Amino acid sequence: MYKPAALNPASAQKPPCRGKHKIFIGMAPGVGKTYRMLEEGHALKQAGVDVVVGLLETHGRAETALKAEGLDLIPRKRVNCRGVMLLEMDTAAILQRTPQLVLVDELAHTNVPGSQWEKRYQDVEQILQAGIDVYSTVNIQHLESLNDLVHRISGIVVRERIPDRIIDDADEIVVVDVTPEMLQERLQAGKIYAPEKIDQALQNFFRRSNLIALRELALREIADNIEEESIATAQNAHCHIQERILVCISTYPNSIQLLRRGARIGNHMNGRLFVLFVAPAGKFLSKSEALHIETCKRLCQEFSGEFIRVESSDIVPAIVKVALQEHITQIVLGESRRSRFQLFFKGSIVQRLMQALPQVDLHVIANNYSDQ
C-alpha cells in the first residue's frame, strides 16, 4: 500500500521527512520501465495521490506517450549551453509545486552544462530531501561498480553512471523483466528504436548473448540487494566479523578497474571498503597522475569507502601497516609490473604480502584491461 511522505500542515516548521524512492530497473532499454512507472502513477492518482511527471523520455514510443496522458507534467526548463537553449528537468518548479509523488525517467542522465547539478540523480536527491516521494527508472549497466563488467559483456563503455549507494538507499526496487527473445521482438517491431537503427542494435548491444548476460546481472544484483537488506533487518542474525576490503591503487589506469572490483567484493560480502595509495617518498606526481588519484578518491567516496594516502619508498611495509591498523581481511591489487630482474632481487609483492599477512585473502587482478 502506498504511504506518501507528505508534510503535516500542523508541523510545517519542522524539517520534512525524507521522501521515499522507488526505482524501476531493467537489463536494457525497451523492457518497459517507464511504462510500468506511468502505470503505477495512474493507479496512485486514481487513489487520490497528488502525482506529477517531473521528467519523461518517450524516445518516440507511441505507447509510452499515450500512457502519460492524464498525468500532470512539469514543463522542462530552458538551459543556455554555449548559446544553444536546451531543455532539462525543472527541479525548482517541482519543489515549488510540492506534489506527493514525482515520476522521473532516466536517473543516470547527465544534465546540460550550466545546470545546478551535474547528474539527474542529484536533482532527485534534492526532491527526496524536500519530503517528496520519487519513482525513477534506470538500466543495470548504469551502475558504477558494474561498468567494467558491462564493458566486457557488451564491448560498450557506458558513460552515464550512478553511484551504487543510490540503489542501496532506495526504499523499493522493482525489476522490470522480459526475456531476451521478447526484447528483440520489440526492437524488430520498431518499439524501441527508429527503423534505421534496428539492424545495428541487433548486431551490437541487443545481441541475444549480451541480453542474457545483462538480464542475469540485473536479477543477481537485486537478489544481492534484497539479501543484504534481510541480513540487516533480521532479528536473529548471527554475530559475525565484518569483512574489510583494502584496494591498493597506483598511478596506472587500471586502478579504477581495481577499485570497482573491490567495491563489488565489498558489496557481495557486506563489507567495508578502504582504498590505499602509496605515494613514492620524495617524488612529486605529474599533473595527469595527480588528477588520476583524485578521480580514484572521488570514486572511493561514491562507493562510501575510506581513502588513505601514505608516503613510503617501499610499498609492501606501507600496505602491511595499513592492513594491520584497519583490521583488513581482503586485499585487492593488480598483478606485478616488475621485471624479472627486480623480482629476483626484491621478490614479488604478492609473495611478501602473503608472508607478512597470512590471515588476509589476496585478490590479484590481471592488467589486461584498461578502463576508459
From TrEMBL:
Keyword Transferase found: yes
Domain Signal transduction histidine kinase osmosensitive K+ channel sensor N-terminal residues, every copy: 18-226
Record's signal peptide: none
Ranges of residues in domain UspA: 243-357
Record carries keyword Metal-binding: no
Keywords, sorted A to Z: Kinase, Transferase, Two-component regulatory system
Protein name: Sensor protein KdpD
Organism: Almyronema epifaneia S1
